[in-house]
Amino acid sequence: MSPVGSAMNSALQSLLASQLGLSVASNNISNANTPGYSRQRLNVVPSDESGVQVLGVEALRDQLTTSRFNQQTSARSEQDMLQQGLQDIQSSFNDTQGTGLLSVITGFFNSFQTLSTNPTSMTNRETVKQAAVSLTNAFHAQAANLSSRQQYANQAVATDVDKINTLTNQISNLTKEIQTEEVSGQPENQLRDQRSELVRQLSEVVNVNELESNGNYELTLGNGRMLVFNGDSQNISVAAGANGLYKVQAGSQDITGEIGGGDLHAQLELRDQKIPSYISQLDQLAYEITQHVNTIHSAAYTLGGTTGVNFFDPLSSAAGSASGIAVNSTITSNTQNIAASQNGTDGDNSAAIAIGNLFSSPVFSGGSVTDQYGSLVFNIGNDVSNAKANFQEADALVTQLQNRIQSLSGVSIDEEAAQILQFQRAFQASSKVISAVDQMLQTTLAMVTTSA
Amino acid sequence: MRITSGQNYEALMRSLQNIRDRMQQAQTEMTTGDKINQPSDDPAGAADLVRLTSAKSEIAQYTSNAAGGKDRLDYTDTVLGNVQTMVQRVISLGESSLGNLSNPSAYTTEMNGIRDQLVSTANSSYQGTYLFGGSVQNQTPYATQPDQSVTYQGNSALGVVQIGRSSTLQVQIPGNQIFSGSINVFSSVKKLSDAITAGDKTAIQTQLTNLQQYYDSVSSVRAQVGALSNQAQSAQSDLQSYELARSADQARIQNADLAQATTDFTQTETQLQAAIQAGAKISRVSLLDYLN
What we know:
The complex is a heterodimer of chains A (452) and B (292). Chain A has 452 residues and is α+β, with helices and mostly antiparallel strands. Chain A has 11 helices and 9 strands. In chain A, strand 5 (226-229) and strand 6 form a beta hairpin. The longest helix of chain A has 60 residues, at 122-181. Chain B is mainly α and 292 residues long. Chains A and B meet through helix 2, helix 3, helix 9, helix 10 and helix 11 of A and helix 1, helix 2, strand 2 and strand 5 of B.
């Protein structure tokens, strides 16, 4: 090719490359705030002959950092949910702000002390009955509250499983599209960004691993169970388990234990670990109060001189005691049946004193009744405080990784402005080359015309 | 490190969030005056507060028991004072009768009336319960029999109330330690009245000596009641000082350091202003401003 023709050609290539560069910059700027977008760069090399050759448009992303980011996103979202769920529970055990069981437990045992000051007074007996009813009602309310939180977490498990299926379906569809489009050899940057964003959203729900090798794309649960393989996705489902709570299934296999991280794992932990542990501590407390009070009460004498009357309906075991604790109907219907006397005379207050003294005696499995209730409050407070600390730690890591990702893949407006300037100038320069070549050709043509 | 516009924005949002979080914490402490507003603020502190709160209500109950017990003891003392006045009157009637045995009914009528009064005094009740029946409450402590003798229907139980984890206060003295112990006041008065009617000076003297002894024995019971009342009094002031100590512990754990909270709040406020200004400046500076 003649030097003039070659100059024309390379100027043309440069014009095209500059326009492409401008369009890449423009695309970057328009997506500067798009979540999950990775900035793109025009890759060019010097052409074999002369001029510039466009290799393609590359997206800048670091798969390793992205997958660490996804792991931490799972951890953060799990701790966030745990923290919120536990906060809700702790608000009903906030004795310093007037909620919780402390005041009714205190009131109950103090009412027996009051009864001891005048065991035949019907007013004092009524006080004992009212205090006992308040105590049982408070236990029932706390137990109902905890079990409704548990049901709430159970519903959330089903919702999370739906979310996972929706996301894995979208991811497999995108993968199918990406694989079809990329047959040409050019990376499908926009679709990959979209998929990356969906995987991040999925990571908030459950911990997943992404693996792309030899042209195959796999998305698995933490332990390797396949959720997406290329264009196919494996749906998971929920089914009611033996305890009435949902188990997570793949096909007919129970995979509840395989779930790690994310909102789903937080819901499972609240539902299967935290809440049951609080319920059982509450049950134990209600059970021991019932046992200890009944032991003294049934050996004592009522105002009519009867003995062997239980104060609370007897409970067979600790499980379910918080919701089952109830004052014996013989007592609620007639407060004369409250037994305050140990020797059978009406004015004896020994049994009332003995029951009142249970309040401070270390006969409960956790010390005194207050110690035992105090450790429940401590456990809940400590769980919230740990979840908070874990959340802050995971959040700091997520921030750090996000910064690293942003640093590589984020769009800098300043940088793009400089790019625009650069390509604009290159375009202007190439135009000048073309107009110079054109003038040269005209001059040549004029020479030909003159000589002819 | 390459810094992008997104990072600037993210960093701004994050620091604003952090500052607002700390401001809210300081603000809650300032408005409630409490350092622990929920158990997670300090789980161990919250558990301590549960124990302190329950200890305080326990102390309040013991205080109320002690106060009630003291009232009952003081009332008992008043009643025993009345008993002494009546016995004193019987003695002076008996002494007068010695010089004028010709008209016994001038003495015996009043004496028998006093005896009935003594029975009803021994059956006194306080807030609906008999003071001197021990723990028997379904019948009066003393009953007058058809033969005019007065019998004790109560028992020897000493009523106690709890005024501390391991301390109790005796709040009642059974009638068989007061009215029908070694000397039965009712039969002494009856015998004295009978002796006056019979004009038996020796018998009158014997009963007068008995009644004087009885009077002294009531004095010693009153001394015992007074000592118990003092015990109740000093228990109350002990309990009060326990309660103050518990309140101080509670305040130490629970109360926010207001000066600290206020300083924190002001400090975070300044930080917030600085962060907002920096954010506004950064987003205003762009290369685009210098290109045309």
